[in-house]
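In this section we walk through a basic example: taking a raw amino acid sequence and producing a predicted 3D structure, encoded as discrete structure tokens. The instruction is simple. Fold the sequence below.
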Amino acid sequence: MKLNIAVLAGDGIGPEIIDQAIKVVDAICEKKGHTATYTKGLVGATAIDQTGNPYPDETHELCMNSDAVLFGAIGDPKFDNDPKAKVRPEQGLLAMRQKLGLYANIRPVSTFPSLLHKSPLRADLVEGADFVAIRELTGGIYFGRPQGRSENGETAYDTCVYTKSEIERICKLAFEFAGKRRKKLTVVDKANVLATSRLWRETVQAMAPAYPDIEVEYMFVDNAAMQIIQWPKRFDVMVTENMFGDILTDEASVITGSLGLLPSASVGIHTSVFEPIHGSYPQAAGKNIANPVATVLSAALMFEYAFNLKEEAELIRKAVDASLEQGVVTEDIDKTKPYKTSEVGDWLAAYIRKNA
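The resulting token sequence is shown next.
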């Protein structure tokens, strides 16, 4: 199979972790007879510096003409520390999601047996935790209008907006995921306070009879935040709106012991995007110390969701499991005998070539 992949490395550690994912993709293609073609594009602070636009038209055209997008990370302190900056790297990410119609972010959360001791939670709480968080990605407060500040600068306002069709679209996907797993769906909202959450709850209640084999529960977001820490194994599929999903999935990521271990897939109307859930980690940029595993596992999701090559995806996951078990990890996992970012990528690629 020919794989036409757009590569948007972005900022900070983005280029380093993307390079390792490409090593792994190349190893898979070599062993399984595929051909991967990579075309690079600009996004984020790098794109602003070169074009003034965090998501240039050329990058969007590249994404639209590709089979999948392998994405690194965006963000730069010079924008974070300037609240008056009119153009920000994150605007590029939002623009990409909106223009590509990426309405669903899928984040699998599971533990690795060899790393249970690295979780800040007790091993008996996290062992066996395995759920999927599905976050609505193109609506809510991040995209709602009006948004801005008053003329005197003393008042700021954001608007949270959802339509019934947006909710139906993301929840249909969530029901389908639950049907393929343990048949339990948790809908996270704040229906006791927010009108948009009440629309979410009403919409799901109307949809539920069409999925009689799925157990549906409704949970306020503050309770969900506690339950993820107290009892992560109770969840199977979780679906929620944009901002709640942003916060809860980052919280859930620490269950594994490192933010550098969890991948994600953003799917929707056009080309899907595969990216780690962590940020650009600018303090580590260029030091060859960042954990590439989340990006490598995002490549596994790419094989599975974009190309329907599940055997290839499982081989990548097998390689990652082996690397963790054998201690081939970066300093966020083991500070005593850490491997470099590039060394982890080399090891994973070599494992695939040897064991495929």
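Looking at the output, two observations stand out. Residues 14-32 form the longest helix (19 residues). The mean pLDDT is 94. In the next section we compare this with other chains.
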